């Protein structure tokens, strides 16, 4: 996948942010030194208006995501969502030798689920942390016949081939299902993932008895050779596919191998009741592979005797992979999003959904009913004389709050939302400076992006809401005259996964982060034109200024 922000660019941005914030802190330390607790100063707060409106998430780049969604998720508000993927496989040995009198024993497919481990008294329990839904799906695995090229043959030299979430290429060509669904290798009409670890057995050479020697984390693990669900597989299919690699010049290179064996296609379907589940598979995990186990004869004591030996041939998921989504979006909500108000008015409700779903756009410091504009608000916090900025107020904390419209939202509300700079396709300063970092799970950036919380009002009624701190973002606008950019608000399965997946057809918004792509969840929030004024989102600023 081609990302908008290269590693070098991101590093430069982070360094610039740190330097600017240090400059801000230095300037503020002179102005606000000793402010807290000093009689001449007091902390005040004010809520400033914002405008919020909806945007549809359109087709986006969906290749090489790292993790992949697989399954069917029925959202009672937004409709059904189907996620499949196709993946290339590659061996580190292009010139294998399998030995004499080779016999195939098994073909084991292993892909770990996304899970968390808890150890209690030397016993490890696992929980699948990216499992959505509780019903079975029909799972089918096919031999793929479509060649996933790395480079675009119709573009300039060395231009990468882009693949999109609807299964299309840059040229508009669609990957036909007849190409993806080659030979059926496995099918299970009632598949559901297990959170149990998987015991791995080996045969004791002395006793000849099979023993459990280790365990594997919860995984999609299937024997594609010894399985009653592949009874329609042609006789000798795997033997011909794998053992033909020996002394085969056509497969002695990476490109030759990809052309010979074009990988696997994973297809999920809902049950007859339109139910199912969706899971996240870790294709890039070192344990993810297809391992062929076989027996062969080897000579001992010269050429007088032979003995049976065991061998294995491993194919990793190191090539291209493409996620293909089919989103049966609720027509009424889609119409509401397409009929969204202009950025001068805003929408009643904000419809956030991951995958090829929808998002919200936020404009800070909207014009209020008295005609006050961004320039008017900014003048409350600073003076400018001969291009020299003098702060009048110290921003102690700034944050947005969004209330969940609980009568409409799906009961399975996402725990995290993510906000970013739409104009520059980058994170905010608060994201960079938030040190609660653990990008391997969704539990990161807890100061900037506060998880879903519940507050209780004076009548004892509970309300769910999200809180997003923008203190450093606001300070940068006030002190460094930074642009008041448009902000994007989305659901996220992991707020640490921020690589941008570009839209196929870009307009004012370039794309969405991977954490949103990998979330099927949704939530409905109150917008700035909500019929409940108490739940209108606002920019809350706590500040300190000298008493006059």
Describe the structure.
With 548 residues, this protein is mainly beta. It folds into two domains: 271 residues, no CATH class; 217 residues, no CATH class. The strands form eight sheets. An eight-stranded antiparallel β-sheet has the order 24-27-20-1-31-23-26-25. It is elongated and about 100 Å long. It starts with 6 loop residues before the first helix and ends with a strand.
Portion of residues within helices: 10-25%
Please report the number of helical segments: 9
Q: Write down the Rg.
A: 28 Å
What does the average pLDDT come to?
Answer: 87
Strand order of the largest sheet: 24-27-20-1-31-23-26-25
Q: How many strand elements?
A: 31
* Main pleated-sheet profile: 8 strands, antiparallel
Tell the overall outline: elongated
Query: Gap between N and C termini, in Å?
Result: 57 Å
Question: Which quaternary structure do these chains form?
Answer: single chain
Structural class: mainly beta
Beta-strand fraction estimate: 35-45%
Low-confidence segments: 1-38
Total domain units: 2
